[in-house]
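Example record used in the benchmark description.
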Amino acid sequence: MLTKLASRIDDATRHGKAIQQLTLTYKLDIDDGYEIQRLAVARRLLRGEHTIGTKLGFTSRAKMQQMGLDQIICGRLTSGMLVDDGGTLPLAGLIHPRAEPEIALLMKHDLSGPVTLPGAMAAVEAVACAIEIIDSRYQNFKFTLPDVIADNTSCCRLVLGGWQRPDSDFGNLGMMLQFNGRPVGIGSSAAIMGHPARALVAISQLLGAQGRKVKAGSVVMLGSPMAAQPLAPGMHVLAEVERLGRAEFTVR
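Model output (structure tokens):
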């Protein structure tokens, strides 16, 4: 059954066709959701993509409230999701895409299981401003926790700005999202679990419980301090994080 549901998610992603929530028909728990996610992403890998990292979802109260959920979750990032900084995002084939500013980390050491905040930060090679484009494959952007986990936490695309050395504290940095030069979201990195590094600690623990790890050389997207905003053709999208720079793209 889970293999069939993974195929349904993957087909919806490839064809840009919204589907009914899986939990309206099937009784699924969180473990089922993660197994469906694994199987669906495995289909992407069979088509030639490769895994590049991990993303967290619902690391801020704003995101939890927007989606009506209350638990941190994680998804898988693949090479096919990358959009060049300053590049173009075609909306064709997407369902209801939204953008949000984030902080991304590049890992220099593996992490798995319980880890201290200093220990987590010691494993970081670089940090960057980033944009995540989310796009739920469910009708009306409505889902339960197992649904959204199965849907790879609504992951769609990501844009990475220039990498910076993680020398300074990024626990309370101003973050902004602009559409066509107009601010549509302003927040602080402190809204990401009180400090973004706590999100790295959380993902290490979450993956460790699943027998997985945050791998050296991988990218970790830490979630956003603000609600995602819907995209439309012709938009120029810019995210900026204090001291970390910017990332941008144009919607086609």
